[in-house]
Please model this.
Amino acid sequence: MNEQIVILDFGSQYTQVIARRVRECNVYSTIVHFNTPAAQIAAMKPSGIILSGGPSSVYAPKAPLPDKNIFNLGVPVLGICFGVQLLAQFLGGKVEKGQKREYGKGTLTIKDKSCALFSQLPKSLQVWNSHGDKLTKLPNGFKPVAVTENSEYAAIENRAKKFFGLQFHPEVVHTPRGKEILANFVHGVCGCGKNWTMRNYLEQAVEEIRAQVGREKVILGLSGGVDSSVAAALLHKAIGSQLTCIFVNNGLLRAREADVVQEVFGRNFKMKLQYENASALFLKKLKGVTDPETKRKIIGRAFVDVFQAATKRAGQAKFLAQGTLYPDVIESVPIAGNPAALIKSHHNVGGLPKNMKFQLVEPLKNLFKDEVRLLGLELGLPKEIVWRQPFPGPGLAVRILGEVSPSRCEILRNADSIVVEEMKASGLYYKIWQSFAVLLPVRSVGVMGDERTYDYTIAIRAVESQDGMTADWVKLPYDLLEKLASRIINEVKGVNRCVFDITSKPPGTIEWE
Ligand code: XMP
Model:
């Protein structure tokens, strides 16, 4: 990890996207808080610095401002949106409130083709804007290099100092060639090679894990989800039989889930896998409980108890491995109105109590989810695991409204299998964020053959999302919906009606509980 780009976060909802785009160019990137001292940034030996966008105005009294010495490090700087306004403000230009907010699609016309940022790009580009303030005077040494309909300083440069500013967002998909602009910055301007690949990372991570762990034992809670699965495979490669994976069956898993985990990790990878079948215990504790929060708390506590007892049985271990990802460790800059504030309070019920005396091994903590998936493939994990849709820790319980009884689990498990099967057959399963069945507590009248039925309703949910924070419902084709409904009603005993959930998030949540 020699070369890296440091990104200063001023609270933009796109900061992580910038970091991901840079990494997609095979250059490592790190996000730091906007007020990180310049000396600390210098110590990171960045090849370049990117100033993110942000919701503030540079002239607002509480505007987030960087250490001004970052402009004296002799390192190329790219300011994006709020970042370009900062650049201007700090270096002697002028920023004012724009007459018109510039929001949405725009056309960028490049005036100076010799600007390194636009190398190999056409003269005219579609870009995405989102700003109210406007640069009205350039700092000394700067030249405009591109314009939009509404902005004569849409792209600016100080070629001698290698300072650049973009008023639009090159990182978002609505700027279709934006990634090439960022690639021009990191390779062309900053001179970075293409060293950040998961193959390189794998070798380095194995070394680091061995150095941290030595000959000690490591325990990992394997859920079968992408993160813990990749962490398990990586640790196994690094330390083999020093790793014990604990898999807890809470009775709320989908069909065949426990089998797949045992097959892949136990039989194929030959990992030490401790299988804890605690189904009866969880279902006993959930008996008669219908309140969603209570259900989640019961499941969370039971998990901790079962896991703790299991670690004792696994023998003395010094380390506990976790599949923590980079977005979990970035110190986020709070943004007013950020949807993150709206997340359900009950996430990550699998969290372990502080009193468990382990040291942590977190081999994925520098990676984004897309990178974890690539690493999983590099490690030889099957597609079914690497591209698995997210599945909540409390499992089917949050998709069974009302009481979670063994028979209702069975109904949902059968309906869910049909949804997964048909979504896979349609080719949509791996293209969308999540698709699943929900069992409602309402019964309604139907007729099957000559008989009147009075059975439960299944709701089908399919959503598109980037990170689970917001989501749109997916317009599944009618023939697929028809097949799903017909199969569920015909094949799942206890169900006589199917409905399709057309709620987005917000105002709905993805899971029903
Ligand atoms: P909601 O329902 O809050 O879900 O819109 C957002 C995303 O988070 C997943 N989810 C969970 N994941 N433990 C988890 O690990 C949980 O308790 C939990 N609850 C919801 C959900 O499946 C969706 O992807």
Observations:
- Residues 344, 346-349, 390, 392-394, 434, 468, 505, 509-511 surround xanthosine-5'-monophosphate (CB under 6 Å).
- The longest helix spans residues 292-313.
- The domain at 405-500 is CATH 3.30.300.10 (GMP Synthetase; Chain A, domain 3).
